[in-house]
Specification:
alpha/beta, 2 domains, four-stranded parallel β-sheet, Rossmann fold, seven-stranded mixed β-sheet
């Protein structure tokens, strides 16, 4: 078309609402006379000799806008600066590059923006914040798209698991996706009234170790035994592993495969299985007869159909891309405020010296966090005398002592 083309790519893993963003952008730009090109496999195809291009038309966009998954194939590929090229942009008369992804995708977008500026290529670059981890540093604590849909499905699964525990008199150890941040695990656990939630942000005063986390789990179990309750569930964010050394991880006794750098390949094992195995070993040592089972929440929530919140939010973000484009903005994340206002969040303002965007962790100083934390089932000083029936040193299972609060 005479106005040029818009290119859209998706990086990282899937999140509910990707198709909504892509469809909204496509419809808006098509109606203004632009052609819209989707790129399969993210950055991996952007700088290849034969980019894998999908031409997006109105009918296709209209058909996929409320569907889960991503019509455009995704990739976690991170190109080196030496791979950057202007060929794709020049050959296809690209006026705007839209990148959809989390912190890694945004960090690469930031580097591409600098490359385009250095080579005087007049192409705008706008990033749409996507991740079920909710860990991009958006203003006013705004969510990343996909988070609420993933959390909603996670709560459905977690509630079913909890009901199984209540029905059968068992405990479940649930591990949730989360990379470095604990937003998803905390949101699921708080919504499903889990007696114990473990996220990396809790350990701000102490090192994250298996010993501390196992004590937190045992604390919840013994507290409920004291209350006459023989069931429950614990949710743990996989993000805890990002703050543990290889040595600490290997102390688990779990057999891992290793990558080319000699690091344990955590992505190939069930984190819930690791925690459940360690919990059972500890319970056996303490002679506490409680059965527990492992459950993973991760891949199950990434490609579901977006809920109404994300359908509306992703539509606002897609429309916001067009708004920022018309305002000649570039090198920014599109921000859609609750009042409908669209703002640019410049990548250069939130990137570190290395160009990488630091993830947003859950704020443990926030009152909403503290209300949930205080509601967790765990041994307190008033429980010490009763807990001595099961633990010789109940004070060591008090969350305040475990976390040195």
């Amino acid at each position: 078309m005479q106005n040029g083309a818009v290119a859209i790519l998706c990086g990282g893993g899937p999140a509910p609402g990707i198709n909504t963003v892509v469809a909204t952008i496509a419809k808006r730009f098509l109606s203004d006379g632009y052609s819209v090109l989707g790129l399969n496999y993210g950055y991996k195809t952007l700088f290849s000799e034969e980019p894998d291009i999908v031409v997006l038309n109105f009918e296709l966009a209209d058909r996929i806008f409320n569907k889960g998954g991503s019509y455009l194939r995704m990739s976690r590929y991170k190109p080196k600066d030496s791979e950057f090229s202007k060929d794709f942009f020049v050959n296809h008369n690209i006026k705007l590059l839209v990148t959809i992804g989390g912190d890694d995708t945004a960090s690469t977008a930031n580097r591409i923006t600098k490359y385009l500026e250095d080579h005087e290529i007049k192409i705008q670059n706008i990033h749409v914040p996507k991740t079920i981890d909710n860990d991009l540093p958006l203003p006013s604590n705004l969510p990343t798209f996909g988070y609420h849909s993933a959390k909603n499905e996670g709560v459905r699964i977690a509630s079913t698991v909890y009901e199984d525990g209540r029905t059968s008199g068992n405990w479940f150890v649930v591990c949730s996706m989360g990379r470095e941040a604990g937003h998803l695990a905390f949101g699921i656990g708080a919504s499903a009234h889990y007696p114990m939630i473990i996220i990396p942000e809790m350990f701000k005063n102490v090192e994250i170790t298996f010993d501390r986390m196992i004590k937190m789990m045992v604390s919840a179990i013994v507290k409920r035994i004291i209350l006459g309750i023989d069931y429950g569930a614990i949710i743990i964010s996989e993000g805890v592993f990002h703050f543990m050394s290889d040595e600490q991880i290997l102390k688990s006794g779990i057999h891992f495969s290793y990558d080319e750098h000699g690091h344990p390949e955590l992505g190939k094992v069930s984190k819930a299985h690791i925690f459940n195995t360690l919990l059972q070993l500890e319970l056996n040592k303490l002679r506490i007869k409680v059965k527990s089972r492992p459950v993973e929440i991760g891949y199950e929530v990434r490609c579901i159909d977006p809920i109404a919140f994300d359908l509306r939010y992703c539509s606002a973000l897609g429309n916001g891309v067009k708004e920022l484009f018309d305002r000649k903005e570039s090198g920014c994340i599109v921000v859609s405020m609750p009042d409908g206002k669209v703002d640019p969040l410049y990548l250069k303002d939130i990137a570190g010296e290395n160009g990488k965007i630091k993830p947003r962790l859950l704020d443990t100083e926030n009152e909403s966090y503290n209300l949930v934390f205080k509601s967790l089932d765990s041994i307190r000083e008033s429980d010490y005398s009763k807990a001595k029936k099961y633990l010789s040193d109940p004070e060591n299972y008090d969350l305040k002592n475990i976390l040195k609060m």
